[in-house]
């Protein structure tokens, strides 16, 4: 019987300003004054690379998230930042979040092809659909698109981007100085795409990049999100609260991938964790409590209200969650809604306890 192949962990650093915890910016060991200081992020990127991590990742949204009164929010657009980080790193993957809801395939494909060239083939695209009214209102809309429609648009968006990356063949550039021929125009072709959401002639105005495509990453765990991931993604970020939930998610997405004619190994599952680290467990617990003590309840309530589609303002912090809508009635982030609601119900958490649990 052949020996089983060794299993390897893939580790990714999800970098978020002063820290992922919503009170991290208040802790004396963090540097919230450096959120627009390139040197700060260069140091983080080099540290992650020195630690042999596979990639660094930046979330993004097209509105100012949360209440800036109580958290260190805002900062760099991720593709711009990663282009700068590409110059001070050599091996680590560079993943940027870009929405398919309020962007266009041509300029998105162009930006990722550029980042892939600048980094020597290390670009990754975290494909998201924008899910908040605040984002919609920055683009001339009073409401955001319905959840299913957002994923329909996302599917066509990725298909168009892929066609654009393929509009230059690997060997299209001839660089024949003698004959005066730079490229074989038979290998640089329009894509002539006309679909439900996009009409794009092409070709892309960036040569074929080292990877061809960026690494395709996805982070939704709703039914639409899992189906999208199974069809397109090479890596999936997910937040699961129990081992059983994580195993069920893993099996579900892998089975869906097989139905799309993909191998299980074509898709990696990256469960999100927010570690609190100390030289002993007691030190780590003490740091966790310090962060909890620095939380601003007003900020936590506002965040919860957005996640749950329910205004929690004025409710007693030491009371339970009120009655919530069904997931099918949520037009925002469905998977995050379900995760938070089930966590509160399963562990019988008060609002104060839920805010503390979700700080990271």
Structural commentary:
The structure is a single chain. The chain has 360 residues and is an alpha/beta fold. The chain has 2 domains: 12-218, TIM Barrel; 295-357, no CATH class. The chain has 11 helices and 11 strands. The protein has helices at 38-50, 78-86, 105-119, 133-136, 147-165, 223-232, 243-259, 281-293, 297-308, 334-347, 351-357; strands spanning 12-14, 55-58, 93-99, 123-128, 173-176, 181-183, 193-194, 199-200, 215-218, 235-238, 268-271. The strands form 3 sheets. The chain has a 7-stranded parallel beta sheet with strand order 1-2-3-4-9-10-11, covered by helices on one side. Strands 5-6 form a two-stranded antiparallel ribbon. A two-stranded antiparallel sheet has the order 7-8. Strand 3 (93-99), helix 3 and strand 4 form a beta-alpha-beta unit. Helix 3 crosses helix 5 (147-165). The longest helix is centred in the middle third of the chain and has 19 residues, at 147-165. The protein is globular, with a radius of gyration of 22 Å. 34% of the residues are buried.
């Amino acid at each position: 019987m052949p020996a089983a192949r060794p299993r390897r962990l893939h580790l990714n650093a999800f970098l978020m300003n002063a820290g992922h915890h919503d009170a991290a910016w208040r802790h004396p060991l963090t540097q919230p004054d450096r959120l627009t200081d390139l040197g700060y992020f260069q140091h983080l990127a080099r540290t992650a690379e020195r630690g042999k991590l596979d990639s660094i990742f930046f979330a993004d949204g097209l509105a100012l998230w949360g209440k800036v009164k109580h958290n260190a929010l805002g900062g760099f657009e991720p593709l711009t930042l990663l282009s700068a980080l590409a110059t001070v790193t050599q091996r680590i993957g560079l993943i940027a979040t870009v929405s398919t809801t309020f962007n266009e395939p041509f300029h998105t494909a162009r930006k990722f092809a550029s980042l892939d060239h600048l980094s020597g083939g290390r670009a990754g695209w975290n494909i998201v659909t924008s899910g908040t009214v605040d984002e919609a209102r920055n683009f001339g809309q009073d409401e955001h698109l319905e959840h299913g429609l957002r994923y329909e648009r996302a599917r066509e968006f990725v298909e168009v981007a892929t066609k654009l990356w393929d509009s230059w063949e690997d060997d299209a550039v001839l660089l024949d100085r003698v004959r005066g021929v730079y490229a074989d125009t038979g290998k640089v072709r329009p894509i002539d795409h006309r679909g439900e959401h996009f009409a794009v002639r092409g070709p892309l105005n960036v040569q074929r990049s080292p990877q061809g495509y960026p690494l395709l990453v996805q982070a939704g765990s709703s039914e639409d999100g899992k189906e999208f991931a199974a069809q397109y993604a090479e890596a999936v970020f997910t937040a699961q609260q129990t081992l059983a939930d994580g195993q069920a998610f893993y099996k579900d997405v892998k089975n869906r991938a097989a139905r799309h004619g993909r191998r299980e190994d074509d898709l990696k599952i990256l469960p999100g964790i927010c570690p609190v680290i100390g030289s002993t467990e007691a030190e780590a617990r003490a740091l966790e409590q310090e962060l909890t003590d620095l939380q601003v309840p007003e900020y936590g309530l506002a965040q919860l209200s957005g996640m749950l589609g329910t205004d929690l303002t004025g409710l007693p912090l030491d009371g339970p969650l009120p009655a919530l809508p069904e997931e099918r009635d949520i037009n925002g982030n469905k998977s995050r809604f379900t995760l938070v609601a089930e966590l509160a119900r399963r562990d019988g958490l008060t609002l104060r306890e839920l805010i503390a649990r979700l700080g990271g």
